[in-house]
């Protein structure tokens, strides 16, 4: 692994080129800050240096501050680890230095990387360079002057958009806004930057200190209105997160009291935010997502992924059409198979609608949309399956049907073809029981809508080959999914963990709690919607099918309730027919339907309360070795079930509030309502011994790995 370093070369023209290197994205590690300070000090002292150009090595300026430092702070609680670069190096040494500095930017300048460029007296960029300040996604704010300098260079409205939405822009857009002084070809970047720096030194170009600019800020009443509007929007879009309001406060402070005052406030608030649970959760989620690529006996045994160019999808319903959409957008040729022409046409139209929807939301260019749709072909039989690299079965949760399909595709497909199922609950050993190709069978569980939701749960059986797992992980990355490899059991990792969530909600309703209040409280916690609105969205057929599967596998902790069947009998099927727990009308938000309450009352009368507990089931998933590591379940809960990322994931959150607290609550509820809430052995052991739930399995006594 290459070490971070900073070098300086002084040319015969009197320009010092300071280059920092920290592969792969030139992150600003603590040693890089030390190196920058040393090199800039030397350049300012030397008589043979007239001007300075600062740049990143290897075609990238910088991906930003080294996030590993945040993790160090979170583990040690020592805030003094953070560098005081904002005033000491960036402002006093570079921006207020006696020699001009030009930033030569290429590839990307994000976070602290862009903040370094902002303190320079000009910014020259290569084409299509990515510029942004995404710090709020990690629970903090730009901590090296970004909150003060960006509004002064491009105006407050656009600066707020870039910071509050963590939205990056290209160097071309940056040029129009005044953030970039010139966009030049990569091979001319250093030459133009050198000359620009000399021109500033010779007073032929303006010597601009961005912290001192005020011409683009607008009047104080305008600033007040813009910031107040942004505050109200942030209350809606960033509930429970402190960094958005803190960022707005710091920006406003600097505009009212001056840029230098704003810098001091920014530095103080930055350090406060780093220590919050929100930052801890978001940083954990960031590293958890990175860790998913490390799968024992798959990613560490020297295998190389095979090329997957052609994939067959069986079933053009909601899931099949979504999966096919994701694949064609990833430039993978798709054969969509249905049982008749009517269903096939419906599936193709759904895919076209998915693609058009992305175009209308400006998430996909029209030419790319047209190209993607050319990658799709519909069929009614297996004749075209003779050269496919993978098949993904996406039919209804019906065991005999799935077994029949797997028997058929084993005969129709080439011997190297991966045989995947999108089943969300059924044990893969059952799905593939009638095939001989057990090493090629794998789960490819997408989440709805499949072309949008970022998680791909990859399920391996005891016989699935490492090559098949690696190939599917690679396909996942190609189609912009985060692949998480899990073991094989009913519900796998995500649905098994969250099944008790829905169960507990129904138990509470049958005990007399208002279902709309439950939904509201869950939304307040940070999920996009509560369990009953989610059931409306998914359709009641899914609830009936999953309850059946789970009750067979985990009868001792399944709560049987009649409510969903009563809703179906009453002619309700959620959002699909406009009526469920909520009323759905085009163009308006879902409204609670009071007429559902008599049906709820009937369910309460019919239910014999026998008896919750998402963390409890997550502990069982860990104890059974269904996931490689606790952080895999964290990122899967965030990306698959929309558990709030700022809470770090289900296990991280449970450790934050304390395993003992969870354990004591479940003990109390199990005494009141029975075995449904009985704490798992794993939770009891961790809570009583004071061991974090996320600690490796070896710390606990009896993990039985399925991986």
TrEMBL record:
Subcellular location: Peroxisome
Keywords: Fatty acid metabolism, Isomerase, Lipid metabolism, Lyase, Membrane, Multifunctional enzyme, NAD, Oxidoreductase, Peroxisome, Transmembrane, Transmembrane helix
Reactions it catalyzes: a (3E)-enoyl-CoA = a 4-saturated (2E)-enoyl-CoA; a (3Z)-enoyl-CoA = a 4-saturated (2E)-enoyl-CoA; (3S)-3-hydroxybutanoyl-CoA = (3R)-3-hydroxybutanoyl-CoA; a (3S)-3-hydroxyacyl-CoA = a (2E)-enoyl-CoA + H2O
One term of GO molecular function: (3S)-3-hydroxyacyl-CoA dehydrogenase (NAD+) activity
Transmembrane portions of the chain: 311-336
Pfam families according to UniProt: 3HCDH, 3HCDH_N, ECH_1
Main location: other
Oligomeric form and interacting partners: Monomer.
Name under which the protein is recorded: Peroxisomal fatty acid beta-oxidation multifunctional protein AIM1
Top-level taxonomy: Eukaryota, Viridiplantae, Streptophyta, Embryophyta, Tracheophyta
